[in-house]
Design a protein that fits this description.
alpha/beta; 7 strands; binds adenosine-5'-diphosphate; 42% helix; Rossmann fold; seven-stranded mixed β-sheet; 274 residues; binds magnesium ion
């Protein structure tokens, strides 16, 4: 049993930058290395959930055993009768080799309105998962593209965060602000967390603009940017649609990129086999 699991949140204020692809495939990489891994989907868009399991399996589980929405205490919740659930019950075991999943739910879209005046609403997940996280070596939280209550709950729980950035959306000013906001937020939540790094994601065909923006980012954030860049490859979106990790898609280059990135991230967060 891991005493102090490493908990990594995947965050960016932008959508479509590859947060979910990176969270899911990093978790899958860890699982394949026999690292006991839990993936927590905190995005109401449920993309990480549906990258791992088909919708029918999710529906049955959500009704009977609940989702992360139950752990956050969403009251007007349509599944699992909005009842509080034990974290253990919400877990779907073995979605990938070595990976368990706490699925998300669309009802999280209104969580900010529902929990707006509740006390200690940012630490609900931390409290709910208290007895569960010691069963894992790595926990990966996939966050929505904002810093609202689900992301705050992930940050209140995490030891580290990683920021996927797509050069198409890149502005180094935006990233500096984001890092600053996350640090401030984590301090306010009394859980100072470490920036594990920035990963260039969905990198498309070479162009002057892209090369320049990536160059600026590497210059500004220096060794904070991972060496490995995740390229734009069709196997990545296909793997999500097929509920498979990238390593099972027969695209050696894509699999190799995610493996190299995952190794770098494990290094950055100081993972050591227990
Ligand atoms: N490296 C990649 N190559 C090709 N498609 C990707 C890649 N990463 C993500 N995608 C696809 O792009 C879309 C957005 O990616 P996603 O990981 O969901 O981003 P986010 O979680 O930041 O919103 C999804 O359809 C996803 O399958
Ligand atoms: Mg996502």
């Amino acid at each position: 049993m891991a005493k102090n699991p490493i908990i990594v949140s995947c965050v960016n204020l932008k959508g479509g930058v590859g947060k979910t692809a990176i969270a899911v495939n990093f978790a899958a990489y860890c699982g394949r290395q026999n690292i006991k891994t839990l993936l927590v989907d905190l995005d109401p868009q449920t993309n990480a959930t549906f990258s791992c399991i088909p919708i029918e399996r999710w529906e049955a589980h959500a009704v009977e055993h609940g989702t992360v929405a139950n752990l956050l205490g969403v009251r007007n919740h349509t599944s699992a009768e909005g009842k509080p659930k034990l974290a253990e019950e919400t877990i779907i075991g073995g979605v990938f080799q070595g990976v368990d999943l706490i699925p998300s739910h669309l009802d999280l879209f209104t969580v900010d309105l529902e929990l707006g005046s509740e006390v200690a609403r940012e630490t609900r997940l931390r409290r709910a998962l208290k007895d569960v996280v010691p069963n894992y070596e790595i926990v990966v939280c996939d966050c929505p593209p904002n810093l609202t209550i689900p992301t705050q709950n992930a940050l209140a729980l995490s030891t580290h965060y990683v920021v996927p950035v797509s050069p198409d959306f890149l502005s180094s000013l935006g990233i500096a602000l984001l890092l600053n906001r996350i640090q401030k937020l984590s301090e306010a939540l009394e859980n100072p967390i470490e920036n594990a790094g920035i990963v260039m994601s969905r990198v498309g065909r070479q162009s002057y603009f892209r090369t320049q923006t990536i160059g600026t980012l590497r210059q500004t954030f220096a060794d904070r940017v991972f060496d490995t860049e995740i390229k734009e490859r069709s196997a990545v979106s296909e793997s999500a649609a097929k509920n498979k990790p990238i390593y099972d898609m027969g695209d050696g280059l894509a699999a190799d990129e995610f493996s190299r990135f995952s190794k770098e991230l494990l290094n950055a967060i100081g993972y050591k086999k227990q």
